[in-house]
Amino acid sequence: xxxxxxxxxxxxxxLVDTEPYWIGAEHDIVREHGGxxxxxxxxxxxxxxxxxxxxxxxxxSTVSWTPERVVEELVRRVTAQLERHxxxxxxxxxxxxSLTADGIPTALVTMSYSPLIPPVMAAxxxxxxxxxxxxxxxxxxxxxxxxxxxxxxxxxxxxARCVALEDSPTGVRSALAAGMTxxxxxxxxPLDGIEDVILVPSLTVLDLAQLRxxxxxRRLA
Length: 221
What we know:
Strand order of the largest sheet: 3-2-1-4-5-6
Helix content: 40-55%
Structural class: alpha/beta
Strand content: 5-15%
Distance between the termini: 18 Å
Number of strands: 6
Largest sheet: 6 strands, parallel
Radius of gyration: 17 Å
């Protein structure tokens, strides 16, 4: 029997290329408050818990809203973008569909909030995920292991038998802290200097056979 028990997916930047949507929404909100936002600041928020990101925006700009209001506006604006177009990361749908076809349990583990999930699921056109963990379902977001541990518990799979797919340092650290084999696919921000993460340039280079072997070997064949 394969040691692979489940594959757990990050969403923004891993499954879908929505980081430009988030960064654009941040720019718009700060500009509407008479301030200036820059991409160096925006990149520090990639993969974060949304309330953490909201507090960072307030502390580093002229935005006068509460953190909760900032989150509400970010989610509203990015959801509207997703309802118009879902930008997939290369190889994401193909790999996900192959896992589903082979009966491998999957979970979506994202710091995005629940309203962003329906447009992505509708665009997938299949029941691709057995479990969905969103940022508004956990007390402690990434890089804390709670999101990934919650997903493993709901799947009924030991963390050591899970592979996590992530694109951000925050997400990678969350999955590693949960005890999962973690594959990093760098996108907007680098993943340099993080021990134990397996780096690949794209999801297009991964297949089910490699994911099965990586749990045992902790490395790609």
